[in-house]
Amino acid sequence: MKKTKINLGDLIFILFYKFGGSIRGSTTLQKLIDIIRFDSDFEVDVKYDPYNFGDFSQEIVDVIHVFVDNNWIMKTEENAGNDKKIDIYKLSEVGMKIARTVYGDILHKDKEKLGIIDQFKDKSQNDILSYSYFWYPMTTTKSTIKDRVFGRVPLSKCETGFLEEEYNVIKNSNKSVKDLIHESWD
User: What Cα–Cα distance (Å) separates residue 23 from each residue in 13, 74, 75, 141, 164?
Assistant: First the structure.
């Protein structure tokens, strides 16, 4: 099936619209776009490189800077603990009007293709990272937070049978891995 091309700037406006005008963290935004490009029928023309928190695209950062410079998005910082800060992005009134227009202009069938994002609206950044890391391990090759995200033993300890145990639990449950992940979110 041929994928529908979507402009990166439009996609970012759509994501903000679907998330009620606010997204916590640039990593969250990066992962949401990852999910769309891997798990939807959209073709997003964006270049990603493996980085500290998984796939990273400078293009996304550049678009956000343009949006901030044009006062379509307001950026603030929030204390995330351990002397770390997290960027909070919120659409301005003008940005919300643009986002609403962009979302309203896409075809109904294309809105359905974005349905995958709806399951992440109420999820924490860690949940979104976990989903992204689990389903797209090729994006985590240079990640410095992989072990923290999974909260498990490092993969270098595979010889202890950890992965085999996990596999057997999933296999014996008669459910898909995706179903088990979704159940763990409830």
Answer: 11, 11, 10, 25, 37
